[in-house]
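Cross-check.
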Amino acid sequence: MGVGDQLSFAAFARAKELHSRIWFTLAALVVYRLGTYIPLPGIDSAVVSEMFKSHGGGLFGMFDMFAGGALQRMTIFALNIMPYITASIIMQLMTAVSPSLDAMKKEGESGRKQINQYTRYAAVLLAMVQGYGLAIGIECMRSGSVAAVMDPGLSFRLTTMIMLTGGTVFLMWLGEQMTFRGIGNGTSMIIFAGIVANLPLALGNTLELGRTGALSVGFILAIFVLVIAVVYFIVYVERAQRRLLVQYPKRQVGMRMTGGGSTHLPLKLNSAGVIPPIFASSLLLLPTTIASAGLGQDAPEWLTNTIRALSFGQPLHMALYAFMIIFFSFFYTAVVFNPVETADNIKKNGGFILGIRPGKHTADYLDFILTRLTVVGALYMTIVCLIPEFLIAHYGLPFMLGGTSLLIVVSVTMETVTQISGHMLAHQYEGLMKKSGLQGRRS
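Predicted model, tokenized:
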């Protein structure tokens, strides 16, 4: 262990607030994982598990990946936090097209709280619709002559809907608590925990395919090499950024010259982060879960054909998935980075980008650079998410080895490590300030 590692470990050991945040996050994740094993009443879990083994390779398999296996076990967290994510998408789209919501967003903290409240209401409504549709879908599940639901009917549907909605609302609250009192983004951490919890099972299933002869040993080794290459590629691109040099001229204040120097404005290659594939997956899952209410023995042919066309691995699914990833890459980048506002802030501080006039020209230049970066970032996410998913659809590999899951796991891990480093750095600065204050008093 080097000197730098020893110093980092010592700084971590002294950061008591960071310890409490990490312990709170771990405790919240334990509560979440326990909830994924609390079954819904009135359901024969063996029948549901058998149905998933034979028909779980489609969109419901992807949904179950995000839910950490809760959907396959039909527990109270079967919907996971996906209704809240879908509601967030809808509210952000509405903010972009609605002047009143846009004005509310610009009100600051009060406007943001109001929009968050609307998002929660929309999430509850979506969870109720999806929960009711899922309840009807469960009633249609049979394994031979054995039905998945012991006592079907309106009472079962309402009870299931209420419990699934309650589970989603609890996860919404838990995610917010993790964001404010823990480490990392709570919503992303919940999805991350569900994927990571099933990774050992995914590796075991892959090795089992090799043992039974379904896949050759060479092909399995090639898959593992591909997974490592994808992880390396994700880390490389997520750290990539375009650094724009911003120059600040010197100013004379009285008899002294102040200011001056230069700094860099970092623009990430993938400014949208892991949001686009999560949003795209959530929107693709929404119509399928709602359509479950119409599936069964007497389902109309057009509905069956639509669900089949949207199933995992089909050309329509892949095309829609790629389109949504690209769309949300541009949309979310526009949400998190405003070129006009950034250019105004640079101008107010007396800065300028070399060779570019302040004001509108700077905003246009930033928009031009950001658009080109987003094109590359969107193509990167599309490739990472679609190529492994193509292999999963055609060779029966577990979803946890797909590009979407790997992108989420790697990105959330990097974000969490960055936050931990930020807390440690802030703690070190606080310690230095206290020491300097003590020295000042002593002198």
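The chain has two domains: 24-188, 198-443. The chain has a mean pLDDT of 79. Passed to J.P. for a second look.
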